Amino acid sequence: MRSIRTSAPLGRGRRTVLAATGLVAALALTATACGGSEEDTASDKPGATASQAAGGSGDGKVAIPSDIADKLEDHGIDVDKWKNGGWEDWDKDKWLSEAKDFVNPVIEGLWKPERMRSAEEADKTVSTKDAAAAQGVSDPEPAPVRAQAEKTPYHDNAAPVGKVFFDSPEGPSVCSGTVIKDVNHPGKSNLVWTAGHCVHAGGNGGWYRNLVFVPAYNDLGRSEADLTGASASEIAPYGNWWADWASTSNGWIQGGSETGGDGAAYDYAVLHVKPEQGSKSLEETVGAALDVDFSAPSVAEAGTMGAWGYPAAPPYNGLQMFKCVDAPGRFSLSPSLPTMYRIGCTMTGGSSGGGWFRVVDGETVLVSNTSIGPTDNTWLAGPQLGKDAEALYRNMSRTHGGR
């Protein structure tokens, strides 16, 4: 989560306890039985920007399509050297920022349990002046909602939710993500929804590296002491899923910053992933995926929302899944930017990218994702997902979903 340093809470009294309780009961993020089963164009800012990555072969060796190999060569990148540690070179001239330059070859064994536990959240701050710039646009600050631990095992209670790991110039980092359905590949989706700042640094940087999604991380919610010496299968029951394609908005790439910036309202991303080992799709393996609601409902229409994720900054340690349920209000960093949703929630950094869900016609759908929050961890804000987000999603599904 990108943190915001805000002024003193204004408070608001419109909490809907009964509605929140009902949403928890209705949010059936459970798994089904495993195993089995129109042309849109991306717009300009804040629209879709697709990226292409190097892939891997079944024998564990990196397999690079010829066109991608040519692009890597143009940037002076030797894929074998990259795989053997060259990715740690964050020279600004090699920190690739253009979509076509995203590079994420599979490096088997890189994300071991201990390395996952060492990953830290990217917790940033902005000034009180920036946070207060949209007064009159934002609704009063919500009362904090204490995050509740999700029931275990996670695959029975929140199957589509997991963690997103990546390497940044600061070291191993972590976000959260959600398995979503693929409209062009029903029942066999390999798509994951997360935040734009979990895949790309924004206007002053480039694509992050070694992006991996781990569904139902630490499925039994075991403590740090109990996980000492835990096997990879205990930490990642469904394995590691490497991003071989990624898309985030031009709005985030051009306007995103360490503090969220003008890109916060467009802070969303879609990953297309492949298993480090195995051949089934992510949806088949996990047994669940959620539709995305691109109607961008107003806060009055939205009703109650729930945010899920793996908070990693104190008092949390990133090992357990938590959730917050609340009635959303409006929030914006500037009157010139679209409003975001905001709910009361005490989750901290590491929950970034985690899905926000609501119930539509009896079905649980993803309606936003965690983007920014204050340094005192009393609320979360996430982007509204409208036509530009849908264009990004459909372009990803159409162009890369079947790979």
From TrEMBL:
Compositionally skewed regions (Basic and acidic residues) per UniProt: 118-127
Name of the protein described by the UniProt record: Trypsin-like serine peptidase
Enzyme class: hydrolase
Sorted UniProt keywords: Hydrolase, Signal
InterPro entries: Glutamyl_endopeptidase, Peptidase_S1_PA, Peptidase_S1_PA_chymotrypsin, TAT_signal
Organism for this UniProt entry: Streptomyces fimbriatus
Gene3D superfamilies, per database record: Trypsin-like serine proteases (2.40.10.10)
Gene Ontology MF: a single term: hydrolase activity
Stretches the record annotates as Disordered: 36-67, 118-144
EC identifiers of the protein: 3.4.21.-
The keyword Magnesium belongs to this UniProt entry's keyword annotation: no
